[in-house]
């Protein structure tokens, strides 16, 4: 069986709805409720992101039907390095079209875009628990450079407060020991002339 002809083209305003529909599908696949995902697209947030000058989106089509999308952003590898890069923010292929070369065609568009903008690297954030995606990117030469760890502000506040309390408790124990040693040294010193 031959592979279908995949056409990848820049996202046009007329196809925003197609991307939004697939974005909702992608959110549902990772455990979000369809109602929550739809609510997230009801405003203008997603559309305004797609219109930003540093964001470029591509749509993959087979027989004029949308089967996947890619969202890129032009950024720097790190705030202090200044090295220009293209970041793959979203890469999604409909389940029925996976393993048909759609993602590879979308990534070819990413490479061409990176060349056009003079990016030194292409970065993709792949969830560590998604083994297939990690293998896919590894086969294409993507290597891990950092481990990105995530927490909520509330959880960080709790952990910092607990660590501060633990440190305060330790500091109190050390201070009590120092005081006890000082008292013992003073008592020995006071008792020494009486023994002599």
Largest sheet: 5 strands, mixed
Helix percentage range = 40-55%
Q: How confident is the prediction overall: mean pLDDT?
A: 82
Derived from helix and strand composition plus strand pairing, the structural class reads alpha+beta
CATH architecture of the largest domain, by name, is: 3-Layer(aba) Sandwich
- Extract low-pLDDT stretches: none
List the main descriptive attributes of the protein structure presented here.
Aminopeptidase, 196 residues, 5 strands, alpha+beta, single chain, 6 helices, elongated
Outline the structure in words:
The protein contains six helices and five strands, in the order E-H-H-H-E-E-E-H-E-H-H. It is an alpha+beta fold and 196 residues long. It has two domains: 7-139, Aminopeptidase; 151-196. Strands 1-2-3-4-5 form a five-stranded mixed β-sheet, sandwiched between helices. Helix 4 (102-117) links the parallel strand 4 and strand 5 (121-124). Helix 1 (16-29) packs antiparallel against helix 2. The radius of gyration is 28 Å and the shape is elongated. The mean pLDDT is 82.
């Amino acid at each position: 069986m031959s592979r279908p002809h995949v056409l990848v083209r820049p996202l046009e305003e007329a196809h925003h709805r197609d991307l939004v529909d697939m974005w909702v599908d992608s959110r549902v696949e990772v455990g979000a409720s369809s109602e929550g995902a739809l609510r997230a697209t009801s405003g203008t947030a997603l559309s305004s992101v797609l219109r930003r000058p540093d964001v470029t989106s591509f749509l993959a089509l087979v027989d004029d039907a949308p089967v996947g999308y890619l969202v890129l952003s032009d950024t720097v590898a790190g705030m202090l390095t200044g090295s220009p890069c293209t970041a793959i923010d979203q890469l999604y292929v409909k389940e029925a079209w996976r393993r048909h070369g759609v993602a590879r065609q979308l990534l070819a568009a990413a490479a061409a875009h990176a060349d056009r903008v003079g990016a030194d690297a292409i970065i993709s954030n792949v969830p560590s628990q998604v083994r297939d995606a990690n293998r896919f990117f590894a086969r294409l030469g993507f290597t891990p450079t950092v481990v990105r760890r995530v927490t909520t502000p509330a959880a960080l506040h709790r952990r910092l407060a607990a660590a501060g309390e633990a440190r305060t408790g330790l500091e109190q124990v050390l201070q009590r020991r120092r005081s006890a040693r000082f008292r013992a040294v003073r008592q020995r010193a006071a008792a020494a002339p009486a023994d002599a």
